[in-house]
Structure formats: structure tokens, C-alpha cells
Amino acid sequence: MHKPWEGRFKERTEEFVERFTQSVSFDKELAFYDIRQSIAHVKTLLKAGILKEEEAKKIIDGLEEIERDIREGRFHFKVELEDVHMNVEGELIDRIGELGGKLHTARSRNDQVATDEKLYIKEKTVNLLGLLKGLRKTLVLLSERSLDLVLPSYTHLQRAQPIRLAHYWLAYREMFLEDERRFIRAYQSSDALPLGSGAVAGLDFPLDRFYTAEELGFRRLCRNSMQATADRDFILDVLYACAVCGMHLSRLSEDLILWSSEEFGFVDLPDRLCTGSSIMPQKKNPDVLELIRGKTGRLYGNLIALMVVLKGLPMAYNRDLQEDKEPLFDSLRTLEGCLMGMNLVLEGLSLRAENMLRASGGFSLMTDLANYLVQRGVPFREAHRIAGSITAYLLEREKRPEDLTLDELRSFSELYEEDALLLLDPKVVADRRRTYGGTAKDELLRSIEVAKREEGMA
Ligand code: ARG
Fold first, then answer.
1. 116 CA to middle of ligand 1, Å?
2. The domain that contains 343 carries what CATH number?
3. Is 231 within the bounds of a domain?
């Protein structure tokens, strides 16, 4: 196998080095983008008068043929040709002869690889944005279904205050909406064309880079040829967006795993999304959720891995940058699976209203017993102390707030009247929280309407 650089070398490459330096085993994932880019490059060369009409046509036909063969699984990638770029070019030369050697005029693999990656990212992020939107829609539908279900909210994983379940789903919808902004940002970072920068310093051929950008659908050009070939921040942006989105999915998974335990009993997962135990007959395990939580680890790992690769690199391209691809491909693939898994789980979830309601009363109601006094002029700190003593009183007697009589309440403060007993109903308590963004039914109805409009569901 001939290497493009053999003119300079006296020895053939050690086999170990071929294996160690190759990237084709994974960067073949970029093949279609590489070909798309090459076709645009050929058109640019034609426009600059560097290729003749006839030559350009032959090269493009050859590239399209190669593309078809890859698509149909008939293409054999060769490790000796190192990476996807040299595999495609080598094959082109094999097929159309010497003329194929003109393809790499006025181009370096340094501007080529960054261009491939950006094309890849732009396509994949659009796909992820679609999955994210699907998940948010599922959350909105769940919110409508669970408007009248009440459960405790938790802080420190201790029961805090009753909420309507819709409020919880909408909280995650907000987080996934922020993820959308992060992915759009990542898309925008990838929307600047590196091609036409050469290996590092720019080109001594009169290429119209604006034309190439238009051909490939880039909104901007990289404005500095060194930055164009040295920069991988656009990949960091994707990896960061994936890591944060994965973290949201992981936290949601954690709640649902807890909620599906016998101890909580708030939800049931459908059998078709669970697995059993090979030894314990009673088990039904939430493996999809556990794996979403677990895979978040590698989403973080991929981000950190590339951050570390980049930190000591001298300007401009260095081969270290080849290490950017596996984290990128892995994060996109992993997050895609996690989003699909979570969507399936949410669509198949059964909600156990009784258990939620039972858990939502009790001491979650104490804030409101304090606020009752505040509304009658007691300073909040004093009211808090009184409600705290009521709590201690109940705990000593192993009673719950719902067991309180008016007389007992009045023994703590004369300000308690008959209507204070109404506060011993979690739904009433939830619906008192009417501020913008609160859990009261009216506010949730408004939030659901807004969400539906934003998601194009209304
Ligand atoms: N496989 C290389 C990478 O992923 C392509 C660029 C190689 N450039 C070079 N000068 N060796 O970064």
C-alpha cells in the first residue's frame, strides 16, 4: 500500500505504528460528510479555474460511486490508509486514476477533518433537538394527566410541602428546554467553515471560501486559518450539552427508581421496560433508568477527556486532536439512547395516586400552619417556633397533623380558628401557592397552556 508521503521516507511504516495511529476504525463514521465536503471542494476548485469542467465531473462521479458503495456496505476501509480521508481519496485514485490525485489540491486533512466534524455535529444535533422536543411533549401530556394528583415535594429527600404532580413534570420540562438552548448553541459553534484554511496558514490558491460555505450550508467562515485547524471548542460545546442533558435524565431516573420502589410506591414501570432477576423470583428491576443514570458517567468522562487533550496543545494542529472523535461519537450515541429510553419509560408509566396522596399529608402541612399565624400578624420566626412545637407535640404522641383538634391547636395559639383545620388537606395547601411558577392548580393550568403553545401542541 503506497502512502501519500512515501517520497520523503526511506523505510516503510512499522505495523505497530499503523495500528496505533489509525483512526479509520472509528472515523469512518464521517465518511458521508467527508464525501459531501469533497464534492463541494471540487466545485470550488472548478470555480477557481484549478480544475477543468471535465475533470471535476469525473472526480464527482467517482466520489458519488464510492458513497453508494459505502452506503450499501460494499466498501472496504483499510487500516494502512490510516483515516477516512485517505481511504476515500485512495479509493478514488484506484478508480479514476491519476486525476483523483487532484482532489487534495488546496486542502489539508487539518481543515478537512474539522469540516467533517462540524457537518456531522450539525446533523446530529438537529436529530437530538427532535428527540428532546419529543420528550418535552411527553412531559406536557403527563402534566395534563396528573394535574389532580398530589404528592409531597422533597428537599433533602425529606417530605417538604405538597405539590400537584403536574408541577414536577413541568420542572423537568423547563430543564430540557434549557438543554435545547445548549444544543442550539453547540450547533451554532459548528456553523463556521474551516475548509479553505489549508494545513495552518491559509492557501496560495484563489479559493472562494464563501462559495464553499454556501455549498455546504455553513452560515459563517472560520476567520483565521490557525484557529480553524486548531480549535475543537465546538466539540466541547456538544459534549457539555450532552453532559448536562444526561445529568437531567439521570436525576429524573433517580426519582423514578425511588418512586417505583415498594417504599415509595408512587409509580409502576411497565413490565416490557424492566428486567427480572436470575435468582430472586419477585424482582422487577428498573434497568433502563439505572443505565440512563449510569451512562451519564461517560457523558461527563467524554467532556473531561477532551478538555484534558486540549489543554497543553501548541498552536495549531497536533495529532492529539484525533482523540476528539471517539468521545464525540460516543456522547451523541449515548445521549440519543438515553433520550429514547426516558421517553419510553414516561409514556409507559402508571401513576399510583392513592400512595402519593397518603404521603403528601402529615408534616408536609406544617409550613401552612405557621403561615396561618403570619397572616394574622404573628412574625414569621415566632410562627415557625409555634408550628415547630406543634410538630414536637405530635411526634411525642405518635400522632399526625391530621389528628389535631381545634382545641389542641388553640393550646399553642389563640389565633387558630375553625378554618385552620382546612389546612390539613394537602390539595388545599398546594392550591394556596399561587405565585407565578407555583404549584396551585390555576397556575399549573396556565403553565401547561404556555408549554403547549411553546411545543406547538396547542
Ligand atoms: N485523522 C486525523 C485526525 O483525526 C486527520 C488529520 C490528520 N492530519 C495530519 N496532519 N496528520 O485528526
1. 12
2. 1.20.200.10
3. yes
Q: Is residue 318 part of a domain?
A: yes
By most ligand atoms within 8 Å of CB, the mutation choice from 27, 82, 109, 195 for ligand 1 is 109
Other C-beta atoms within 10 Å of 99: how many?
Answer: 16
Q: What is the tens place of the pLDDT at every residue in 92-127? A: 999 999 999 999 999 999 999 999 999 999 999 999
Q: What is the pLDDT of residues 38-54, one digit of tens each?
A: 999 999 999 999 999 99
Find where cell 404521603 sits: 359
For atom 2 of ligand 1, the residue with the nearest CA is 322
Q: pTM of the prediction?
A: 0.95
pLDDT given at position 281: 80
Ligand 1 centroid–CA 321 distance in Å is 7
Q: How many CB atoms lie within 10 A of CB 321?
A: 22
Nearest residue to 250 via CA among 293, 301, 213: 293
Co-location of 378 and 309 in the same domain:
no
Active site residues: 156, 277
Same domain, 312 and 367: no
Q: Per DSSP, which regions of 115-242 are E strands?
A: 150-155, 158-164, 192-193, 220-221
Q: What distance in angstroms lies between residue 78's CA and the mean position of ligand 1's atoms?
A: 16
Same domain for 127 and 86: no
Q: Is residue 53 part of a domain?
A: yes
Cell 414536577 locates to 168
Query: For position 48, which CATH number holds?
Result: 1.10.275.10
Q: Answer yes or no: are the C-beta atoms of 309 and 324 closer than 8 Å.
A: yes
pLDDT tens-place string over residues 404-427:
999 999 999 999 999 999 999 999
The residue among 62, 83, 105 that closes a domain is: 105
Q: Could you tell me which residues come within 8 angstroms of residue 264 by beta carbon, excluding any fewer than 6 positions away?
A: 258, 355, 359
Ligand 1 pocket by C-beta < 6 Å: which residues?
Answer: 23, 83, 109-110, 113, 319, 321-322
> Residue 211 Cα, ligand 1 centroid: separation in angstroms?
25
Which of 112, 117, 322, 329 is the best mutation target for the ligand 1 pocket, counting ligand atoms within 8 Å of the beta carbon and taking the most?
A: 322
Nearest Cα residue to atom 11 of ligand 1? 319
Residue 134's domain comprises 110-356
Shared domain check, 373 and 228: no
- Other CB atoms within 10 A of residue 237 CB: 20
Residue whose entry in the numeric block shows the C-alpha cell 409509580: 267
Q: How far is the CA of 122 from the centre of ligand 1 (A)?
A: 21
Q: For ligand 1, atom 3, which residue shows the shortest CA distance? A: 322
